[in-house]
Amino acid sequence: MPVYLRKNMTFTPPSLENIADLDENDFEFIDPDKLKDQVPQPYRLVNKIVDSVVEKAWSFISDIENKKTANLNKIRAPKYDCAVKLQSHEKATALTDSVDGRYVFIGLPNGIVVIDSLTQETVSTWDEEKVDIAHIKCHLIGVQTYLLVTIDEMGIAKLFIFSSEQIFLLKILNEQEPGATKIISTKCESSEEGDYIGIVLENTSSNEIWLELHRLPRDTWLREMETVVAELKALSQQQEEEAAMAAESTEDNSQSPSGSPKPGTPPPLLTLTPGEKPNPKFTPPSLVLKIHPPQPITGSTSSSVMSACQKVDSGEVIGTGQHHIITSTHLEQRDSMFEQQHENMMKYLPAEDKQNEEIMQPTFHFVTSSRLTPVGLEQPSQTGRPTTVIVWWTGESNLRQYSLLKQSKDFDHKADIVWPFCSTITCSTTSSCGIYLAVGLRSGNVVLWDRYLGIEKGVIGVSSEYSIKQVQFLDPSISSEDMTDYPPYKTSSSAWLLIQTSDNSQYVYNTSLNTLVVLYTVNENNEEETVLSTVSGIPELLLVVTKDNSLLLKDVTNGQDVCELILPTSFDLTSPWEPIYSFGGGGQMLYVKGSSSSKDEEGAIIDESSLFVYQLRSFPSLDGYWKRPRNNDIKPVHSTVEQRVNALLKHRIAVQPQRKERLEKRWNMMQQELDIILQCQETAKKRTGFGHAYSYFDQPEENDN
Q1: Who contacts 157 (Cβ-Cβ below 8 Å, separation ≥6)?
Q2: Average pLDDT over residues 86-103
Q3: Would you give the distance in Å from CA 1 to the centre of its chain?
Q4: Tens digit of pLDDT for each residue in 371-381?
Q5: Quick count: other Cβ atoms within 10 Å of Cβ 102?
Q6: Are 482 and 493 in contact (CB under 8 A)?
Q7: Got the DSSP string for 620-646?
Q8: How many CB atoms sit inside 10 A of residue 278's CB?
Q9: Which residue, among 381, 387, 425, 382, has the nearest Cα to 406 in the 3D structure?
């Protein structure tokens, strides 16, 4: 019988005991690129570097091409080049509009001009030689009475009042005496209704800077202004009567109506001579508070440990960290140890440039009282008026709160509250209602505080690479209304916050009553746009300036460009990143200053500037925004229990007819439901009786067996 026999293998693998040890020297590591290219090593390294440079350049070129393609495919906004050139005021240095949109105030190299915002007709002027207005701001303090805050090129801050088509000088805040040290003003801002004003002063010789807060006698100024206007009318009538009598009577020129005041009347504010301009004397402001920048933290100057411990706080509150027990010797030893440990790296540190060191500038906000106000500083009589100022200085991470109601001979007060933050503060803003406070940080976060409740509402993480450049609360009328648990308190999620980072990306956040919700990105990673302000009258639109000196109107709700404003040929914005502009007529007009330069026949450069006006009301692309309904009613906030109870009772009385109607409908429904229940009961009884009868007759008979 044949049997299949497997042939012997030609190669017999060795056993595990006979395997020779592997020598590491037998292996050779070969460069993978060497398999394709046998070029020596230095040239291979050069080849790799060239390839990386080409790849980076190609990616950069691809990004540029993609941006160009996106711009070509983008829907272009309509362009309007219908700017009207004003024949006067071409040397305007500053612009601002009145709050009600009636007038536009123009700062000139020799004074101030007031024009009608719609007709551009000159209403009033204030002239003074060598007064170049660099900054001007308007506040409404009465019925068609305006407070003007100005700073000229010499650093002099002045207050003006405009009423009845007359401009009067109220006060020079930093008036200089001959031969005294020059003190200039770098910033001057007032509260919305003109109750307080803050002025930043700087000593040019010592570079010392501080903030002064003054209380403005607004009500007194209004009464004095009424008296001045009445006296001006009386003087004009007197002059007219004198002129009429002089024309009628040529025989006796000496006869004229006596203008002596009646007995018992107060002395007039105006004492004019023929040909003299009216210059009334007004009540001066009063200094309330003086704030100096925070001093750098240094070692303790106490002579003993006991005295140092006595100066240190108990730690119950957060302070500025000035009082501690660390001596200056200890700090010097720490610095020397650090320099010794990192001696090889110290040479790479930038040298300190003390000459070009940036001077600290303050940012301040006037706010009303809230739950964050310390106990004892609340005054019910000051409801609706600012009672507190919030201050922070450039380069620091602490927010300080000062009371404006403290009565003391010493104007240098300590901060009532110190708010520390985890990063350097870059910007801040408050909402129009004064409830919310937003603080932008260098770390790319925005901290939102609810001042009315006295709690932190949340932290918005915007960017991890760029710092916050600007924060701004949008108008509440563009947001939807929310109904809370209590019907009388119909509120609006007014905290729509516009945030701009250092790379000019723009984001909008909705900080509603519940949580912080990210809405959308208006503009991301665009280094060519800077937000200037919202359009007065159309809060949905933003006025944006681009890198190529173009003005855009952008819709904040969807991030689309609505239209582009073009200046005439050869004209550009005077300063692209801080242009001189102003709205007028409630957003119907836009005033912009343009500049151009040309050369004459001899080659000399000729600079020309003009003031242009855009009639935004005539733009077809804005018709839908003008027709859009808006609710500008301010929702009341009840701060006391009595007001809350009265609001609930008033609401209950208002809905009484609706409640009565619901009760009648319910009673009718209850009658129908009762009939159904009775029918069901009768049916159930019948079924129960039939069941008993059936069970009685169907019982089995008992077995007799």
Answers
A1: 149, 150, 151, 172, 173, 174, 185, 188, 199
A2: 90
A3: 106
A4: 777 766 666 66
A5: 18
A6: yes
A7: GGGHHHHHS----PPPP---SHHHHHH
A8: 14
A9: 387
Alpha carbons 168 and 281: distance in angstroms, whole number: 9
First to last CA, the chain: 95
Q: Helix or strand or coil: residue 272?
A: coil
The pLDDT of residue 476 is above 50: yes
pLDDT digits (tens, 9 = 90+) for 522-553: 666 555 777 788 888 888 898 988 877 788 89
Question: In this structure, what token pair is assigned to residue 429?
Answer: 């803003």
Give yes or no for a contact between 474 and 454, defined as CB atoms under 8 angstroms apart. no
Using CA atoms, how far apart are residues 388 and 454, in angstroms rounded to an integer? 14
pLDDT at 455: 84
| Distance in angstroms (rounded) separating the CA atoms of residues 117 and 645 | 46
Q: Distance between CA 449 and CA 439 in Å, rounded? A: 8
d(CA 127, CA 133): 11
Sheet hosting strand 538-546, strand order edge to edge: 79-80, 561-565, 551-555, 538-546, 529-535
Bridge partner residues of 162 (DSSP): 146, 167
3-state helix/strand/coil string of 662-688? HHHHHHHHHHHHHHHHHHHHHHHHHHH
Question: Would you state the structure tokens that stand for residue 289, as one six-digit string?
Answer: 């508070």
Whether 128 shows a pLDDT value over 80: the answer reads yes
Coil, helix or strand at residue 653:
helix
Here the tokens at position 127 are: 């002239």
**What is the phi-psi region of residue 631: left when phi exceeds 0, alpha when psi lies from -120 to 50, beta otherwise?**
beta
- Classify strands 388-393 and 496-501 as parallel, antiparallel or unpaired: unpaired
Task: Tell me which DSSP letter residue 110 carries.
Answer: B
Q: 590 is written with which tokens? A: 């836009």
Q: What is the DSSP string of 362-375?
A: EEEEEE---TTSPT
